[in-house]
């Protein structure tokens, strides 16, 4: 018996399938942000101590550790602070490569977030470019960032480096 | 070096705060739940985040189902300028231990410890199964209630306790919880009535189980001048230890808790009279095992807060035991207290903290 098991060699793989399901609780602040997206609007929150506006807000100022209680409706336009051009194919990719992934600082916000940039050749993207959000059709709006189809250049002159240098 | 011979720097539980313990907080995220607790634990003693030199938290991503939730939770504190910080994938009681060890080195004088447990977001019985041996135990998905029932059965068969004893623990705990405004389950039901409950997993009836709880807690530790400046009656940690037993349930005598007994010995529980003990016993029968291991007699007030049977926010319930014990001393109700925290299936890992009131 001992010889038999030895002859079969060491066991190298053991499959133990695991699946866990969770409820997601976005919280008060993130719910406001997500409900805003459902209406085609960007909503942020301002810190009462440092005055910075976070979008999306998690309900606190990560610098000061105080609740962000003042709601701020932000505009639809922003500035590209930095970007990369994605050329790598991967499983489940839904966007044709190459495409541009950009950090976008909405006007009036003090926190940039990631967005897809379209309607511009990849070799023409640059830091400081002024862009605007293109939303899905009103009937397709949901409380999710999928409500933003992508960002595109809005034709304004590039922003001054000094206006976004703190957000790189 | 023996514990008695080791020089221990006095460290005090300078402040304690906990959230309301509830079945499900589905309005606030982790940061929003923690912020008022952090604000209260600082506010109690009139300090700010700038007065602590170190931050340590206890939590687990398995409860929330999201990666690095402990990093995001730091938004509740505000870590600017950059802070010295650490995290344990354990109950906050072990985070407190880590902070205490750092305070022993003498380079810092104050630390913030906090923990948060969202027990309601997933299926707890499935989640807790994943703390078991991943090859031979977890694939069978034994749930935590069933494993605790194995322990309770062994305890009954050993002749050390009866179902009536379990009911007495549950009855007393939830009656005491009536005077704890933060508790989740508080009522006054006689043991005889409780024994009419149905079995959930025999021999465990419904009343022997802990509630599923969302909650958070925080403690400020202080040493040196800060300890005396921040409190008229510092609550000193005079003994502290934690021990673990083997992973294999079959290799353990589930009716005893040698890891608790060893930790109690090293922490010096028996070196003086114990007025109050806050024991982290999620299941009623576990209090009996732990009280024996801690060497507590009938004169000790056990779990005046109601214990984990009144509120069991995972990852926080152990830290809350330390906080509750400290509050008994701070209020003058006790001079010497023992706090205990547990982790793992069937009391696998145990922590013992001895607290004493100072002048």
Relevant terms:
heterodimer; A: 168 residues; alpha+beta; five-stranded antiparallel β-sheet; three-stranded antiparallel β-sheet; 3 helices; 8 strands; B: 359 residues; alpha/beta; Peroxisomal Thiolase, Chain A, domain 1; ten-stranded mixed β-sheet; two-stranded antiparallel sheet; 12 helices; 12 strands; disordered N terminus
Walkthrough of the structure:
The complex is a heterodimer of chains A (168) and B (359). Chain A is of the alpha+beta class and 168 residues long. Chain A is built from 3 helices and 8 strands; from the N terminus they run ααββββββββα. Chain A is 13% helix and 28% strand. In chain A, the strands form 2 sheets. A 5-stranded antiparallel beta sheet of chain A has the order 6-5-4-7-8, with no helix packed on it. Chain A has a 3-stranded antiparallel beta sheet with strand order 2-1-3, covered by helices on one side. Chain B folds into 2 domains: 11-121 and 212-229, Peroxisomal Thiolase, Chain A, domain 1 (3-Layer(aba) Sandwich); 142-208 and 236-357, Thiolase/Chalcone synthase (Peroxisomal Thiolase, Chain A, domain 1), CATH 3.40.47. Chain B has a 10-stranded mixed beta sheet with strand order 3-2-4-7-1-8-12-11-9-10, with helices on both faces. The longest helix of chain B has 14 residues, at 30-43. Chain B is 32% helix and 20% strand. In chain B, a hairpin with a 2-residue loop joins β5 and β6 (204-205). Chain B is an alpha/beta fold. At the A-B interface, α2 of A face α1 of B.
């Amino acid at each position: 018996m001992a010889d038999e098991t030895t002859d079969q060699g060491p066991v190298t793989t053991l499959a133990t399938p695991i699946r866990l399901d969770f409820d997601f609780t976005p919280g008060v602040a993130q719910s406001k942000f997500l409900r805003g997206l459902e209406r085609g609007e960007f909503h942020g929150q301002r810190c009462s101590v440092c005055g910075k506006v976070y979008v999306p807000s998690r309900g606190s100022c990560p610098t000061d550790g105080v609740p962000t209680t003042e709601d701020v409706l932000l505009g639809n336009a922003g500035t590209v602070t930095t970007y990369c051009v994605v050329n790598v194919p991967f499983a489940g990719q839904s966007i044709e490569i190459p495409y541009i992934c950009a950090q976008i600082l909405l006007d009036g916000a003090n926190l940039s977030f990631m967005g897809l940039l379209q309607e511009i050749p990849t070799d023409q993207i640059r830091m400081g470019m002024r862009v605007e959000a293109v939303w899905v059709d009103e009937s397709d709006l949901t409380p999710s960032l999928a409500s933003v189809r992508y960002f595109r250049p809005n034709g304004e002159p590039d922003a001054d480096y000094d206006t976004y240098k703190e957000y790189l | 070096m023996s514990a008695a011979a080791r020089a221990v720097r006095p460290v005090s539980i300078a402040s304690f705060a906990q959230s309301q313990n509830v079945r499900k907080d589905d309005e606030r995220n982790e940061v929003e739940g923690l912020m008022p607790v952090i604000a209260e634990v600082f506010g109690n003693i009139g300090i700010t985040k700038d007065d602590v030199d170190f931050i340590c938290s206890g939590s687990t991503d398995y409860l929330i189902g999201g990666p690095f939730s402990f990093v995001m939770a730091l938004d509740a504190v505000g870590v600017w300028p950059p802070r010295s910080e650490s995290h344990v994938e354990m109950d906050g009681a072990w985070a407190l231990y880590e902070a205490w060890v750092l305070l022993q080195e003498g380079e810092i004088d104050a630390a913030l410890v906090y923990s948060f447990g969202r027990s309601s977001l997933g299926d707890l019985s499935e989640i807790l199964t994943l703390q078991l041996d991943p090859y031979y135990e977890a694939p069978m998905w034994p749930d935590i209630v069933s494993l605790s029932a194995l322990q309770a059965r062994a305890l009954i068969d050993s002749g050390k306790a009866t179902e009536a004893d379990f009911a007495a623990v549950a009855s007393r705990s939830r009656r005491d919880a009536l005077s704890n405004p933060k508790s989740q389950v508080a009522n006054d039901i006689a043991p005889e009535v409780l024994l009419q409950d149905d079995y959930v997993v025999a021999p465990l009836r419904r009343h022997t189980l802990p509630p599923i709880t969302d909650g958070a807690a925080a403690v400020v530790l202080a040493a040196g001048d800060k300890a005396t400046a921040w409190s008229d009656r510092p609550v000193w940690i005079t003994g502290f230890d934690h021990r673990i037993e083997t992973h294999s349930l079959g290799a353990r005598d589930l009716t005893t808790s040698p890891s608790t007994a060893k930790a109690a010995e090293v922490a010096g529980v028996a070196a003086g009279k114990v007025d109050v003990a806050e024991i982290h016993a999620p299941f009623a029968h576990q209090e009996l095992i732990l009280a024996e291991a801690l060497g507590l007699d009938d004169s000790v007030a056990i779990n005046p807060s109601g214990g984990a049977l009144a509120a069991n926010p995972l990852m926080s319930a152990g830290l809350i035991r330390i906080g509750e014990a400290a509050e008994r001393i701070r209020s003058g109700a006790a001079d010497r207290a023992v706090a205990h925290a547990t982790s793992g299936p069937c009391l696998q890992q145990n922590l013992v903290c001895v607290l004493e009131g100072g002048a």
